[in-house]
């Protein structure tokens, strides 16, 4: 059984009031994809392609108009609250903006401890020890738990967000542009960390990004969205670069050379 199955999902946005009903703009159009246990699927596409909306639908944050989200074989939108809560601990997320993802008045200990308090019954000493171990796992120090978000760099704070996401030992992470706001060196370090965590914990990822180089670095399979549709799916990323599809070629052409002198105008 696949870990995640997205089946024929259609979703859109629109507004209405007592007197009129606006036409809904379709954001996702009959999208289907599958992620296996331990697999990372890189979901590529330009801004407005529907990638982040799909992530929200998978997370249970927005109910689709049509289709199913099956996580561990259970439809997230057709089950009781208790089962949904149980599934929710196995499905966590890391967003793009590491600063808006945390409460600036909370310490790193409080930020990482939130899911532990919601789902576990740990003593104060056990929770503090667990948080210290999580900080070490993501490349920080247990002493960092007393710091506030403004005392971390962007890369360090994203590591805090990752530590919070893996605190419950979930089966899958949704990474929504999780490295795109970081500089190249920090981005490479975070990608290495994510690859290591995937191996250590047997995690599955949905890696949402517009950066083909980042996606290729971490992913096992790749897919491309355009205007709400899934236009390319490639189970073997080594074959992805040879695909003649126009969407793939546009993504390849968007890659900048490492040195500015080699970039064409």
UniProtKB/TrEMBL annotation:
Q: Which GO terms describe its molecular function?
A: ABC-type nickel transporter activity; ATP binding; ATP hydrolysis activity; nickel cation binding
Extract the Gene3D superfamilies matched here.
P-loop containing nucleotide triphosphate hydrolases
Q: Name one Pfam family in it.
A: ABC_tran
InterPro entries assigned to the protein according to its UniProt record, in alphabetical order: AAA+_ATPase, ABC_transp_ATP-bind, ABC_transporter-like_ATP-bd, ABC_transporter-like_CS, Nickel_NikE, P-loop_NTPase
Source domain of life is Bacteria
Q: Does the keyword Cytoplasm apply?
A: no
GO cellular component terms, A-Z = plasma membrane
Ranges for domain ABC transporter come to 4-252
Q: Which UniProt keywords apply?
A: ATP-binding, Ion transport, Nickel, Nickel transport, Nucleotide-binding, Transport
By what name is this protein known? Nickel transport system ATP-binding protein
């Amino acid at each position: 059984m696949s870990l995640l199955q997205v089946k024929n999902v259609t979703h859109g946005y629109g507004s209405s009031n007592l007197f009129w009903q606006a036409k809904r703009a379709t954001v996702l159009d009959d999208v289907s994809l599958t992620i296996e246990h331990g697999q990372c699927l890189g979901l590529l596409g330009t801004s407005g392609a529907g990638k982040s909306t799909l992530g929200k639908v998978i997370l249970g944050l927005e109910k689709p108009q049509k289709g199913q989200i099956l996580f561990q074989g259970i439809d997230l939108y057709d089950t009781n609250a208790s089962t949904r809560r149980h599934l929710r601990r196995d499905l966590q997320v890391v967003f793009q903006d590491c600063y808006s993802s945390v409460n600036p008045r909370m310490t790193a200990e409080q930020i990482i401890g939130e899911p532990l308090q919601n789902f576990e019954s740990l003593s104060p000493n056990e929770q503090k020890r667990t948080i210290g171990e999580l900080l070490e796992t993501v490349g920080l120090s247990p002493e960092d738990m007393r710091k506030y978000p403004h005392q971390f760099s962007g890369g360090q704070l994203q590591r805090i967000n990752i530590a919070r996401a893996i605190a419950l030992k979930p089966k899958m992470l949704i990474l929504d542009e999780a490295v795109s706001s970081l500089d190249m060196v920090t981005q490479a370090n975070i990608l290495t960390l994510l690859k290591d965590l995937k191996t250590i914990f047997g995690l599955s990822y949905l890696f949402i990004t517009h950066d083909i180089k980042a996606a290729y670095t971490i992913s096992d399979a790749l897919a491309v969205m355009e205007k709400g549709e899934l236009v390319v799916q490639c189970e073997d990323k080594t074959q992805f670069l040879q695909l003649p599809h126009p969407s793939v070629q546009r993504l390849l052409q968007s890659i900048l050379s490492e040195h500015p002198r080699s970039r064409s105008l």
